[in-house]
Amino acid sequence: MRADTSLPAFAIEARGLEKTYKASARLPAKQALKGIDLAIPRGSFFGLLGPNGAGKSTFINIFAGLVVKTGGQASVWGFDIDKSPREARGAIGVVPQEINMDPFFTPSESLELQAGYYGVPKSERRTKEILEAVGLWDKRDAYVRTLSGGMKRRLLVAKALVHTPPVLVLDEPTAGVDVELRRSLWAYVRELHAQGVTIVLTTHYLEEAQELCDTIAIINHGQVIACEPTEQILRRLDRKTLVIHPQHPLTAAPALEGVETTLRKDGALAVGYRAADLTVEAILERVKAAGIAIRDLATEEPDLEDVFVALTSSAA
Ligand code: ADP
């Protein structure tokens, strides 16, 4: 590591970043990134959140050197990926979405090969330390094909760490992963973060991003539509819906003070409110005062789609 004074302010920086995929036999042409400006501060635990197809993997893969951008600038750890591709690639470790490993290598061999690929001299390799850290040391000589799905995923994390990158990117790391593995994976990633590694996590789960990340950028249709400290973004999204099923289906939604009411197709009343402003009890009092007898109720949290609607409409 270099001395503190020469450390970059941003782990990852994109300026007007664009990617248009050409049409192929498999897929039509697509502008996946439409001029992204994004600066990920060094030392952050950063969430890149967006629905499937938003452009998250494309964005990440440009920095990993796996996708060639078609416009704009990108740098990793202060190294421009065009001018200093080797340094840029050396500063980032990417844990890919898909498990795509040679089944006939062992974890030990996989790490040695990966280290060779990055030009890490034999004397500086940390195969044992890394395999121990991800709990695979006792499986070091087993064929990858005999490992469980969870072990394979941990091996992917291990592979991303062989060159000790200051920036670690995890692309949808918990898709199809069980709860226990998720927990141990996050415990380890948190530890890396505490050691100073900048973590970038892509996910389409708001909950996951909100639990782990200090800053969240939301990307949709190839554009960044918000980038804020997690708390701030959540405050903006503090909208809940209370659904009231009345004894008798309603034919019109009554106007209630301080909330938005809409009539659902089944005659239920949906009440939109901010949890910071109102309690459920206060809403129920208003509903009862409007002469509605309540049979049942449910609350709905905003999902990612609602989040986009809220953010795009508030930006307009
Ligand atoms: P995300 O990671 O957010 O799910 P992606 O970056 O994988 O999104 O994809 C963004 C868009 O680009 C999607 O519409 C996807 O279908 C398209 N896309 C991704 N890879 C290719 C490719 N190789 N050729 C054409 N289109 C692609």
What does this structure look like?
- The structure is a single chain.
- With 316 residues, the chain is of the alpha/beta class.
- 30% of the residues lie in helices and 28% in strands.
- The chain has ten helices and 14 strands.
- α3 (107-117) packs parallel to α5 (149-160).
- The protein binds adenosine-5'-diphosphate (ADP).
- Residues 21, 24, 27, 30, 32, 50, 52-58 line the site of adenosine-5'-diphosphate.
CATH class of the domain at 239-314: Alpha Beta
| Average residue pLDDT | 90
> What's the tally of helices?
10
- Which class do the helix and strand fractions yield? alpha/beta
In helices, the fraction of residues equals 25-40%
List cofactors, ions and other ligands.
Answer: adenosine-5'-diphosphate
Q: What is the distance, rounded to the nearest whole angstrom, between the alpha carbons of the first and last residues?
A: 44 Å
Q: Give the beta-strand count.
A: 14
Strand order of the largest sheet: 6-7-8-3-9-10
Shape: elongated
- Sequence of secondary-structure elements: EEEHEEHEHHHEHEHEEHEEEHEH
Largest sheet: 6 strands, mixed
Radius of gyration: 24 Å
Strand residue percentage? 25-35%
Proper CATH architecture of the domain at 239-314: 2-Layer Sandwich
CATH topology of the domain at 239-314: Alpha-Beta Plaits
Low-confidence stretches: none
